[in-house]
What we know:
Layout: E1 19-22, H1 26-31, E2 38-39, H2 45-58, H3 60-81, E3 92-95, H4 101-113, E4 118-119, H5 123-138, E5 144-149, H6 155-164, E6 168-170, H7 172-176, H8 194-206, E7 214-217, E8 222-223, E9 226-227, H9 230-237, E10 241-246, H10 248-258, H11 266-273, H12 282-294, H13 297-320, E11 328-332, H14 337-349
Parallel strand pairs: 1-2, 1-3, 3-4, 5-7, 5-10, 6-7, 10-11
Antiparallel strand pairs: 8-9
Helix pairs in contact: 2-3, 5-8, 6-14, 11-12, 12-13
Amino acid sequence: MSxxxxxxxxxxxxxxFDVLIDARSPSEFALDHIPGAINCPVLDDEERRxxxxxxxxxxxxxxxxxxxxxxxANLARHIDQHFSDKPHNWKPLxxxxxxxxxxxSMTTWLRLVGWDAQQLTGGYKRWRQHVIATLEDLCPQLPxxxxxxxxxxxxxxxxHALAKEGxxxxxxxxLARHKGSLLGALPGQPQPSxxxxxxxxxxxxxxFDLSRPVFxxxxxxxxxxxxxxxxxIARLRASPCTEVVxxxxxxxxxxxxxxxxxxxxxxxxxxxxxxLHELHSxxxxxxxxxxxxxxxxxxxxxxxxxxxxxxxxxxSQATHLFHWDTRRAVHTADLGEAGIAxxxxxxxxxx
Length: 351
């Protein structure tokens, strides 16, 4: 006789368990998953494809028969390889797409062994609803203080320095794995999926103390290909801001250090610059692309700052930040590590 089924387990109950097990395929897990979950697929991607093909060509019974054999083999392997050292009182929480057959099968097997395994009601789909609700509820309450500054003002590094000083910080570019500019793609680091970004964002803001300021960098609606949630953008634009005013020399030195890797592939950099063809003359683009191919980053970055980024900066900030006219400013001629640390202390000392 199998053990009596437990009461439904909800998203808010997930912290009561020893481990979260995602029973979906590796590709589903890679797209997004509950933070902290481990992936133990009941069917891998190829097995899901095979079962789906059989379902379409031969019907549901044959698909279930073949699928059941695959599920049984995978569950046996997980128990032998991943769960063999778990004590009798081990308590896993298992989920799949919507709390159906995949997580149900694993839960049944683990409960038969004697573990207090439970199935997440509604599965990943219910988790996704929780993420969306969290963003819609908490974003309008975030006590943002927005850090502004022209390109090369080390705003993200300033956020990190503020965090070291004990301040609450929301690093949107870090979560998006992109620097937010035309040249902002990080080498060897693909951006997360949109859903994965939102999951990580919700996890961060759930941990904030809403009675204390949260420092965030001024951002447009998109960071690379990641779209920021509308409630977050609305709150950011309506929040007070502080502008970092750095000398052009300090900004150029910072950019040359922060983007030094762009000199590794001049042709790739030249191709990225082609995206500016609607904003600058062919003569200008040809000059910039030649510098890119030759590795002349100082000349390239100086002109990009002066002719591309700076002309639109103030206009853009004034349009999108509602408190731009009452912004406070911190000044620096040093964007090295010590200078940024001093800048963080200046920001925190502002009334």
